[in-house]
Specification:
single chain, mainly beta, Porin, 18-stranded antiparallel β-barrel, 2 helices, about 5% helix, disordered N terminus
């Protein structure tokens, strides 16, 4: 692994920088057989979780790789991922990770050097097939994601297929036999998992996902995720869901409903999931006033999403994440309102207010306010600043344990070449 990292680093050091969430590959010109992949981010993050010491992290992450031009439909990609901490007064999330101090508030960006992606791809007959280590994101990442917010990306050792033979219909299938998680190549296990290995999780996971856009103004989706994990049996689940998105009287409506077998930490329950949003673009004359979204997301007690990008849901303070992954919670209903507006100099400002409770909102977990500023300077530079504050109401989220008060602040700069 160190040899691979050294080769990648030496190959692309003379080239320059990367993307905020996913690698962007410039289209090669005629005769260009190798395209560099470069994705660089630096971020300062502050975390203050009730009952733990305050944490400060100033981290740097580089993803460096190479992609070949397709030849008779075949191409290949290899990419290393390298993270460093200039300020390391924080808890990286797992024993063996650097740094790891369980007395500190968690910021899950440990230092690491590892192979992030390496796959062979074939494109032909309206189908894309990949074999090897790869990122996979389906739909809004509520179930299958790459945890793009954290410095170390979640990837999968997998075989994946995507077919578009029927107009408007996209069919996806993936078989995963290993999940490469965010805790870094040196991690052993976080305190919350009954396993000695958290760097990678052996799995036998089948993912079926479909979307259809053949009806004007409407997008339909469906999925079946059959998940079995050798190292963490409590994550096993079978999940089946449907979704629809469309416009009605100038309002964009989205609805999703899923049923899960083997829910709960003992895998002995059944549980439902639902997510509904309504989004309206706002304007006064020629003045754009951004967009307003009203939403509610609901998870029955025990509903688990072990492969999700959980940071994107239930507030950026991340207080609900661990139990949402494992299904250890007493149920979660998140009622939220979000407003995004352009301000000055091309900056977009988003504010979100969450009210969270149990299955019926009869139990109050707490309130959260999130604020995000994003500025895209050009095709290369993007800056993001986030503030999240969660105020606990004190009711039990995992058993009798309430969610903690928490504050997170981060400022990052991304460069894409």
């Amino acid at each position: 692994m160190k040899t691979t990292a050294a080769i990648l680093s030496a190959t692309v050091t003379a080239l320059c920088a990367g993307t905020p969430e996913a690698v962007v590959t410039p289209a090669p010109s005629q005769g260009d057989w190798i395209t560099p992949l470069i994705d660089i981010r630096t971020r300062y993050e502050f975390a203050d979780v009730d009952g733990l010491d305050v944490s400060h992290a100033w981290t740097f992450r580089e993803r460096l790789g190479l992609k070949t031009t397709a030849w008779n439909g075949f191409s290949a990609l290899i990419e290393g991922e390298f993270s460093q901490a200039a300020v390391d007064d924080y808890n990286g999330g797992a024993p063996g990770a650097d740094p790891f101090d369980p007395a500190n508030s968690p910021i899950l960006d440990p230092e690491t050097n590892e192979l992030n992606q390496a796959y062979l791809q074939y494109e032909g007959f309206d189908t894309t097939a990949r074999v090897g280590r790869q990122k996979i994101v389906y739909d809004n990442a509520a179930f299958i994601g790459d945890v793009g917010w954290r410095q170390n990306q979640q990837t999968y050792d997998a075989v994946s297929l995507s077919n578009k033979s029927i107009n408007g219909l996209t069919l996806n299938y993936a078989y995963l036999n290993q999940v490469n998680r965010i805790f870094g190549s040196d991690a052993d296990a976080p305190l919350s998992l009954p396993t000695t290995n958290v760097e990678d999780i052996a799995a036998s996971v089948h993912l079926f996902n479909a979307s259809y856009t053949g009806i004007e103004g409407l997008t339909l989706g469906g999925y079946a995720y059959i998940m079995n994990f050798e190292d963490v049996g409590a994550w096993d689940n079978n999940t089946f869901g449907l979704s629809a998105k469309g416009d009605l009287y100038g309002v964009t409506l989205y609805g999703e409903l899923a049923w899960q077998d083997k829910a709960g930490t003992l895998g002995e329950e059944e549980a439902m999931y639902a997510h509904v949003t309504a989004t309206k673009e706002l304007a006064a004359g020629d003045a754009k006033l951004g967009s307003l979204t009203l939403g509610v997301e609901h998870l029955d007690a025990g509903f688990k999403t072990p492969l999700a990008t959980v940071h994107a849901f239930n507030g950026f303070a991340d207080v609900t994440d661990a139990a949402r992954i494992s299904g250890a919670h007493n149920g979660l209903t998140d009622l939220y309102v979000a407003h995004t507006i352009p301000v000055v100099l091309g900056i977009k400002w988003t504010n979100v207010l969450h009210a969270m409770g149990d299955n019926e909102l009869s139990t109050g977990y707490g309130w959260e306010y999130d604020s995000v500023l994003m500025k895209k300077f050009d095709d290369h530079f993007t800056a993001i600043a986030k503030f999240a504050w969660f105020n606990s109401e004190g009711d039990g989220y995992v058993g009798a344990a309430p969610l903690p008060d928490a504050t997170r602040v981060s400022v990052e700069l991304n460069y894409t070449f």
